[in-house]
Amino acid sequence: MNSILKISLLAGVYILALVLIYQVENSDLMLVFLSLSLMVPVIYLVHDRYRQKEKISKLQEETLKAELNLLKSQINPHFFFNTLNNLYGLAVEKSDLTQEVIYKLSEMMRFTIYEGRKHTVSVKDEIAYLENFIELHQIRQKRAVDIRFEKEIEDEKQRIPPLLFINLLENAFKHGVNTLIEGAYIHFTLKTHRHFIHFEMENNFEPLEKPSKRPGIGIENLKRRLALLFPGKHTFTNSRQEKTYTTTVTITLR
Fold it and tell me: pLDDT digit string (tens) for 152-164?
């Protein structure tokens, strides 16, 4: 209703101005008035289109943030529940590892709940999270697993997206280590540079009789996050051979 009233008032003012200028009988003034009359709608349309683009851009940004937060929240909570069960067993046994497990688990939960919400975290904090995850898994395994984590870090204060590679590491334990009785290994490398991030992982596994042809949720989660965060600036490759699985992620930051 307000819009209709505004348009009606503007139309009335325009007609009144047109009549007054016509009565003055000044052709130059009439030409200027008509030129301005044509320009005003064009300016209004351009401005309105700009505002619409801003609204769409803001909506897309909010949608992107919501989807990224949802993807980060899908980090498998079973790990925490399983670790708590192991922690209970260690407490019953009065193991010397109990305090260490409590500390590492609390650090991981703090990182997931608080740092995981942020757009970026330091490379140092992300590495600490991965190392805590590895150590807790090794305690849970209660058997030898050859884990090699090589790091080539230019600046440990560099900011990177949080929880980006945890799904790959979790899959290496779930679909690799947990399928083997002995000889399990996980070898991976994280390289960070101001112009790129590179992550490479290899693990062995015991092939299933009927392997799934569909990628796991963790892999799909990572692919979607990479597509949202680094469109056209990343590569993701994975290969499955007889008893080894390799994944490589490269992100261009320039």
Answer: 999 999 999 988 8
